[in-house]
Amino acid sequence: MTETIIDLSKYHNALSRRNQVVRMLWTIVWGVFARPLPRSVGSGWKRFLLRLFGAKIDRTAIVYSSAKVYYPANLIMERYACLASDVDCYNVAPVHIGANTTVSQGAYLCTASHDITNPLNPLVTAPIVIEDQAWVAAGAFVGMGVTIGQGAVVGARAAVFKDVDAWTVVGGNPAKFIKKRIIKDIV
């Protein structure tokens, strides 16, 4: 077997200089004008800041102050969508969060990785879609290119690398089917 040499001194960041400047400005703006606010206080103000940097976010969506959004222009949040405390939304590619959907504390949404078959490890990206009425529980990881189906639940600390069917519950690492999600009638 031939030994392959990986030489990252030749690595090139594929993201444009403009993109890097916008991200730097965004980090400063969020850090100064939103992060100091307690949890979900100032939701309208935070939505304004996100929209200022290109996010498409419904007037009822909630983004907690400690949530991190890498690139607001790649964020879409529908009615009553929520990014809770300490969510890390690494949205190099688009992240679409459907209506009545919650991404809980400490979850990590990751739209990028590197091509490990190429010795220069170039960046590869794919969007994440979390459909309406879904719940990504605390500390879960959702990888690039994944669609979480309508009404699905990703259990706490789960690691999701493949699409999740609608109205199912998954958990574990890697995430596996646990059961169907059945909503009870409220009496």
Walk me through the structure.
The protein is an alpha/beta fold and 187 residues long. The protein has a single domain (16-180), classed as UDP N-Acetylglucosamine Acyltransferase, domain 1, CATH 2.160.10.10. The chain contains 2 helices and 19 strands. The strands form 4 sheets. The chain has a 7-stranded mixed β-sheet. The longest helix has 17 residues, at 17-33. It is flat, with a radius of gyration of 18 Å. The model has no long low-confidence stretch (mean pLDDT 94).
Notable characteristics:
alpha/beta, seven-stranded mixed sheet, flat, five-stranded parallel sheet, 187 residues, UDP N-Acetylglucosamine Acyltransferase, domain 1, 2 helices, 27% strand
Quick recap of the structure?
By secondary structure, the chain is α/β, with parallel strands linked by helices. The chain has two helices and 19 strands.
The structural class is alpha/beta
Give unreliable regions as ranges: none
Specify the CATH architecture. 3 Solenoid
Task: Count all strands and give the number.
Answer: 19
Provide the spatial order of strands within the biggest beta sheet.
Answer: 2-5-8-13-16-18-19
The best one-word shape is: flat
| Number of distinct helices | 2
SSE pattern: HHEEEEEEEEEEEEEEEEEEE
Mind sketching the topology for me?
Layout: H1 17-33, H2 43-52, E1 56-57, E2 62-63, E3 68-69, E4 75-77, E5 82-83, E6 88-90, E7 95-97, E8 102-103, E9 108-110, E10 112-114, E11 123-125, E12 128-130, E13 135-136, E14 141-142, E15 147-148, E16 153-154, E17 159-160, E18 168-171, E19 176-180
Parallel strand pairs: 1-4, 2-5, 3-6, 4-7, 5-8, 6-9, 7-12, 8-13, 9-14, 12-15, 13-16, 14-17, 16-18
Antiparallel strand pairs: 10-11, 18-19
